């Protein structure tokens, strides 16, 4: 492994036990049932790059997202962040905190990702307090204002509640919160799939600008190949928990190898195909 | 003009609210021709679903059609009483909703729901209705052997096929499909749209396809209407509208949609700044002017009318 | 402070206050509850006589009808007197105090218990959830009045007889409180399970907050509105439960009569023509319970706009 | 399907086990059974003989086992007051309570569902709103007050109906019934209404809320969009889906009628088990209390079980065990 591989997901497996209770199994004589939501998936992400995981519902992409930020202990394999094993039980509390600060996540729903009872300022300040990143109240306030400006909101927005914002603005707040602890790695779980097209472009552009400015590394989870094309350096295609194809963006989309990837690309709706006008007088 | 099936004239829907009325649909006019698939595209809250609900007479309380007319052929349907509305609904106009999971009654078999619909509208006996239901299932690609299955025994895509069979059961002339594939995976979406298109073409039924996805519009529809903040901003032949959009909003919408066919990591997507105004905070004049790069001084003062049944913008006056 | 001002401003502008102003029934019930609470709190100052002061009672005043001078003493009582010659108005005001005190404390007990257990069950899940919710399932199969009676009976069995009357009110509060925690726990658990799957909770876990911090700081504020609704409805239930227990003779002791006790006393006289001894306490109880119920109903509709 | 039934049965037994445990604990620890049985003047020898006879020196586990064995043989010991066997007391009084509960349950269920559906469908109507508002008074009026007022109006003032007791009863093989005589039936009316009124308002409000919730669902919208008549929408689609949750809650409510009968029986001097229980609470007659608890517990568990089975019959999703893991 070269040193540039900042994130390393190694033979990751996530197996869920869906069995009935034992008494039910005894009666119906069924064996234990497992769901391999993620099955032996390995990939690396270089520092400052975006790796996209593409798949349909049930492909395991969101499970990998949760595993990669430390919210879901894998049943097999490991997640290495800059050489530190995220799920190493021998780690001290302090070391663990140190790694946590470097990972963040942007979520799908602009509605559920912000606590409706908290003011935006408090939402952004919480990571600062937890990781003791601001020595004084005024430093905290300065940082909150800085974050708001970074994502294109105004300073006065700190006093408002999430419900006063539109979906796109909320997603900006969510991004600002993710940036608060100055992380290096951000997992973006379908960050624009709940947004309207005209707003989606704003958020995607913002994410790209932040990557350039701050040198962020992204794991980008999506079902939308068109979005991936302009966002990712590399793409992995997931199907039923397995990584079936992995390539640099251009070669994957231009010359896909697996039938599944071909089918996905074929069924992606595209504007240029508007030809029906001829079939109807 | 005998080839026009549905004609909507100056439709205005109002929801009374304590800070003044909310107007989710304001002065919308359009025609649906026999046998065509017309798309309605716009962001959430633009009024596209409400348009469908208004035609069906299914606007939720306390909303109401304040003015305007809706004609189905030579019948005016926006003022019908419940009894006559039932003769139209399902029989002449049918509707498909977004979520196939919740569109079907979980406690009744799909067969029962089909037979019930057929018996309501067609002059057939129970046996004939059942036979018709079985044919309907086969047409949408569902094994007729599953006639007695409950909705929860089907996958999402299959369920939406059942919904289509139900919507087509009484051979309606117009089907309003409200985001019929939004809840489905891309690969399933393509199949379901193809099926809907095929069945409607066979029956020469018209479709109003409501969606937020320009790609779906491009691949499915003959004509398209673009809605923004409760108003119709542009309408026209799909191919020409997509290749040469006129309204600044339509232009922006198309330009900001990423494409699987081109672009790379260095691509800066075209973006329309800001977001669609909420109904309780509509700007004066043209609702789009705060986000419009080509706005003229008068855009702030007056609402542009739809010119030549094509575009509502002062740039083309 | 400007923050306070903005809070008041926000309240005035809120839908909540707007809905309140739009509903005359709600305003009336709010005023009724407020007046009854004030009466109860300031009972010593407002009540014309002290109904517990045996010395001031004159048996000759017994069965005086309302607003009529007594045949023997010539004294007039607004709401009449009972068989002991006790001024009914004062008895009602002091009875109200007992009823409200028992009701409110019982609800607070039930709320604290139910909310904590509900949060715990909803957030932790697994066996913690199973144990708490099974216990709740079993308890709700038995109506709360029966549970309260059992607790009351057991407590009477455990306490020495001389303490029974003294601790009767405390036992009553515990009995009603323990019998009403389930609705709180169930609702809070349900909401918590929904909230905990929301992404803002994931965001909080991401920065390493502990379960307790997340429950108290993030989830608790989001489950409070249904809790408020249940608390209001439970208050009406608790007041009725207290009255029922006292009516059955297993609640408030004769030394501290509540509205239920007064009704029990009045029951015997209703059939012999002294209607006021029963009807006035009963009307007070009904006014209180009805107003609280109306408030609860309105709260539920307002905080849950879908039901409008 | 079989599995679910088995699981329910298992749960029922567990609940019964717990109820028995509580009864046992009450029996064993609340008050002192020896004092209660012998009184204060007994000699030490007498006391020790009784302790030995009652097995109070055995390990707790054995004592509990003995207790359960005795209960299964319908032996609840003797009442502290009157020293009658508790089982006999219960058997004698049970028919009165069950008949009263049955009448009230039918009354509550029928009118509750009908009025609930009516108010849900006529949400904007005057009659519907009137019924709804009056129902709040029903919830706010304590049961005992309703009883007292009914007696006052119909027995004291109008003299139409009896104010207490069961009237004439007919004995049918150990079961006394009031259904077969005019005075028995007349005696049932007031207590029946008193006991059922509160449950009726609850069922009505629940039915209304559930029906409104169902009417908001997409499949109702879709049924309307398919042009089904209002009748078909309300009674073909909405009612059945409404009844699923209503049955569960109503079932439990009806179960609690037996316990609520305590109040009604007190007001109407109805010679049932509730009246017996309230006297037991008052005099700390532990054997009667614990026997009553066991009785009511068994009744509730049975009702619960029946409700669950009904549920299975109505909802195909539960039959397939799929309600928990719905695919999205």
Q: Summed up, what is this model?
A:
The complex is a heterotetramer of chains A (281), B (317), C (308) and D (328). With 317 residues, chain B is α/β, with parallel strands linked by helices.
What count of structural domains of chain B? 1
H and E string of chain B: EEEHEEHEHHHHEHEHEEHH
Q: Averaged pLDDT of chain D, please?
A: 80
* Helical residue percent band of chain D: over 70%
Order of helices and strands of chain D: HHHHHHHEEHHHHHH
Count helical runs of chain D: 13
Describe, in plain words, how this protein is organized in 3D.
The complex is a heterotetramer of chains A (281), B (317), C (308) and D (328). Chain A is built from 10 helices and 10 strands. Chain A is of the alpha/beta class. Chain A has 2 domains: 1-102 and 184-265, 3-Layer(aba) Sandwich (Rossmann fold); 114-182, no CATH class. The longest helix of chain A has 18 residues, at 197-214. The termini of chain A are far apart. Chain B has one domain (4-92, 172-258, 270-316): Rossmann fold (3-Layer(aba) Sandwich). Chain B has helices at 48-56, 82-88, 100-103, 110-121, 126-139, 156-168, 186-203, 214-220, 238-243, 248-256, and strands at 4-15, 22-33, 37-41, 64-72, 75-76, 93-96, 174-178, 206-211, 223-228, 231-237. Chain B has a 6-stranded mixed beta sheet, sandwiched between helices. In chain B, strands 2-1-4-5 form a 4-stranded antiparallel beta sheet, covered by helices on one side. In chain B, a hairpin with a 2-residue loop joins strand 4 and strand 5. Chain B is globular and about 65 Å long. The model of chain B has no long low-confidence stretch (mean pLDDT 90). Chain C has 308 residues and is mainly alpha-helical. Chain D has 328 residues and is mainly alpha-helical. Chain D has 2 domains: 16-72, no CATH class; 86-327, MetI-like fold (Orthogonal Bundle), CATH 1.10.3720.10. At the B-D interface, helix 2, helix 3, helix 4 and helix 6 of B face helix 9 and helix 10 of D.
Which tags fit this structure?
heterotetramer; B: 317 residues; alpha/beta; six-stranded mixed sheet; 10 helices; 10 strands; 21% strand; globular; C: MetI-like fold
């Amino acid at each position: 492994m070269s040193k540039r591989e900042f994130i390393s997901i190694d033979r990751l497996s996530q197996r869920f036990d869906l069995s009935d209770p034992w008494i039910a199994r005894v009666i119906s004589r069924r064996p234990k049932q497992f769901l391999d939501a993620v099955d032996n998936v390995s990939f690396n992400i270089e520092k400052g790059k975006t790796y996209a995981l593409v798949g349909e519902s049930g492909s395991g992409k969101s499970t990998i997202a949760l595993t990669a930020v430390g919210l879901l202990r894998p049943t097999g394999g490991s997640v290495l962040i800059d050489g530190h094993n995220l799920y190493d039980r021998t780690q001290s509390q302090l070391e663990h905190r140190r790694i946590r600060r470097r990972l963040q996540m942007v979520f799908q729903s602009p509605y559920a990702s912000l606590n409706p009872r908290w003011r935006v300022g408090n939402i952004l300040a919480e990571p600062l307090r937890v990781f003791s990143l601001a020595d004084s109240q005024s430093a905290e306030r300065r940082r909150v204002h800085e974050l708001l400006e970074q994502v294109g909101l105004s300073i006065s927005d700190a006093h408002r509640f999430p419900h006063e914002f539109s979906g796109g603005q909320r997603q900006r707040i969510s991004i600002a919160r993710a940036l608060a602890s100055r992380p290096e790695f951000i997992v973006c779980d379908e960050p624009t799939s709940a947004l309207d097209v005209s707003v989606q472009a704003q958020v995607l552009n913002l994410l790209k600008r932040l990557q350039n400015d701050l040198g962020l590394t992204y794991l980008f989870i999506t079902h939308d190949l068109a979005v991936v094309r302009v966002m990712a350096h590399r793409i992995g295609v997931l199907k039923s928990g397995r990584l079936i194809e992995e390539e640099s963006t251009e070669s994957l989309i231009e010359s896909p190898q697996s039938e599944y990837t071909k089918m996905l690309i074929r069924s992606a709706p595209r504007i240029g195909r508007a030809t029906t006008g001829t079939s109807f007088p | 003009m005998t080839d026009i099936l549905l004609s909507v004239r100056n439709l205005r829907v109002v929801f009374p609210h304590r800070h003044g009325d909310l107007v989710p649909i304001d002065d919308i006019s359009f025609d649906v021709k026999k046998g065509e698939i017309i798309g309605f595209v716009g962001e959430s809250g633009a009024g596209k679903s409400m348009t469908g609900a208004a035609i069906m007479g299914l606007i939720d309380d306390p909303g109401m059609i304040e003015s305007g007319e809706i004609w189905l052929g030579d019948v005016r349907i926006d003022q019908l009483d419940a009894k006559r509305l039932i003769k139209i609904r399902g029989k002449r106009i049918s509707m498909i909703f977004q979520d196939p999971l919740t569109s079907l009654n979980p406690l009744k078999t799909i067969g029962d729901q089909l037979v019930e619909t057929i018996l309501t509208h067609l002059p057939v006996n129970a046996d004939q209705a059942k036979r018709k239901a079985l044919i309907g299932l086969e047409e949408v690609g569902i094994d007729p052997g599953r006639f007695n299955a409950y909705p929860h025994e089907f996958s999402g895509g299959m369920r939406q096929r059942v919904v289509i069979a139900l919507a087509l059961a009484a051979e309606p002339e117009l089907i309003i499909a409200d985001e019929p594939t939004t809840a489905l995976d891309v690969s399933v979406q393509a199949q379901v749209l193809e099926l809907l298109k095929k069945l409607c073409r066979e029956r020469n039924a018209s479709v109003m396809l409501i969606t937020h996805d320009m790609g779906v519009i491009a691949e499915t529809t003959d004509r398209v209407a673009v809605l923004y903040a409760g108003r119709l901003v542009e309408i026209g032949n799909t191919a020409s509208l997509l290749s040469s959009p006129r309204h600044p909003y339509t232009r922006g919408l198309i330009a900001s949609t990423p494409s699987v066919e081109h672009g790379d990591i260095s691509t800066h997507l075209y973006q329309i700044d800001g977001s669609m105004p909420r109904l309780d905070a509509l700007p004066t004049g043209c609702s789009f002017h705060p986000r419009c790069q080509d706005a003229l001084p008068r855009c702030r003062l007056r609402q542009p009318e739809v010119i030549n049944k094509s575009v509502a913008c002062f740039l083309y006056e | 402070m400007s923050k306070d001002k903005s809070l008041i401003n926000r309240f005035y502008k809120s839908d909540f206050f707007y809905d309140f102003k739009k509903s005359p029934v709600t305003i009336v019930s709010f005023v009724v509850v407020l007046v009854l609470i004030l009466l109860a709190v300031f009972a010593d100052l407002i009540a014309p006589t002290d109904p517990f002061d045996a010395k001031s009672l004159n048996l000759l005043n017994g069965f005086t009808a309302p607003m009529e001078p007594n045949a023997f003493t010539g004294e007039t009582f607004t709401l009449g007197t009972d068989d002991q010659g006790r001024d009914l108005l004062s008895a009602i005001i002091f009875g109200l105090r007992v009823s409200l005190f028992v009701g409110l404390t019982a609800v607070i007990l039930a709320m604290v218990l139910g909310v904590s257990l509900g949060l715990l069950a909803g957030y932790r899940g697994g066996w913690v959830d199973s144990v708490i919710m099974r216990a709740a399932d079993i308890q709700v199969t038995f109506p709360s009045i029966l549970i309260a009676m059992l607790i009351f009976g057991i407590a009477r069995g455990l306490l020495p007889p001389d303490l029974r009357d003294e601790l009767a009110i405390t036992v009553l509060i515990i009995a009603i409180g323990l019998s009403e925690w389930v609705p709180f726990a169930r609702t809070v658990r349900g909401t918590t399970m929904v909230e905990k799957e929301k992404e803002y909770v994931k965001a909080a876990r991401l920065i390493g907050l502990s379960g307790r911090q997340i429950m108290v700081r993030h989830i608790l504020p989001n489950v409070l509105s249904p809790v408020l609704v249940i608390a209001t409805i439970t208050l009406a239930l608790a007041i009725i439960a207290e009255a029922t227990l006292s009516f059955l003779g297993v609640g408030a002791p004769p030394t501290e009569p509540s509205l239920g006790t007064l009704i029990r006393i009045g029951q015997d006289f209703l059939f012999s023509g002294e209607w006021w001894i029963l009807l006035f306490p009963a009307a007070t109880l009904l006014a209180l319970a009805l107003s609280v119920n109306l408030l609860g109903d309105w709260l539920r509709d307002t905080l849950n706009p879908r039901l409008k | 399907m079989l599995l679910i039934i088995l699981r329910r049965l298992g749960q029922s037994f567990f609940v019964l086990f717990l109820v028995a445990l509580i009864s046992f604990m009450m029996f064993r620890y609340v008050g002192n059974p020896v004092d209660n049985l012998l009184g204060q003047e007994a000699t030490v020898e007498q006391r020790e003989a009784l302790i030995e006879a009652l097995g109070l020196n055995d390990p707790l586990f054995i004592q509990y086992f003995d207790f359960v064995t005795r209960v299964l043989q319908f032996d609840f010991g003797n009442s502290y007051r009157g020293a009658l066997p508790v089982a006999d007391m219960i058997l004698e009084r049970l028919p009165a309570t069950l008949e009263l509960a049955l009448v009230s349950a039918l009354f509550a269920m029928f009118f509750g569902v009908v009025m609930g559906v009516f108010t849900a469908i006529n949400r904007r109507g005057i009659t519907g709103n009137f019924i709804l508002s009056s129902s709040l008074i029903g919830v706010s009026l304590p049961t005992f007050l309703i009883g007292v007022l009914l007696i006052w109006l119909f027995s004291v003032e109008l003299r139409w109906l009896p104010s207490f007791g069961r009237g004439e009863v007919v004995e049918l093989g150990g079961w006394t019934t009031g259904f077969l005589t005019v005075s028995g039936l007349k005696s049932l009316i007031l207590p029946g209404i008193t006991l059922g009124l509160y449950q009726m308002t609850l069922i009505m409000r629940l039915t209304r809320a559930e029906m409104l919730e169902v009417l908001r669902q997409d499949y109702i919208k879709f049924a309307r969009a398919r042009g089904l008549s209002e009748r078909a929408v309300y009674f073909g689609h909405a009612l059945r889906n409404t009844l699923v949750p209503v049955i569960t809650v109503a079932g439990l409510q009806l179960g609690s009628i037996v316990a609520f009968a305590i109040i009604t029986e007190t007001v109407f001097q109805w010679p049932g088990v509730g009246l017996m229980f309230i006297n037991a609470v008052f005099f700390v007659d532990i054997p009667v209390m614990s026997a009553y608890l066991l009785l009511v517990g068994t009744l509730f568990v049975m009702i619960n079980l029946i409700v669950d089975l009904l549920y299975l019959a109505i909802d195909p999703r539960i039959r397939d065990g799929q309600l928990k893991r719905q695919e999205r």
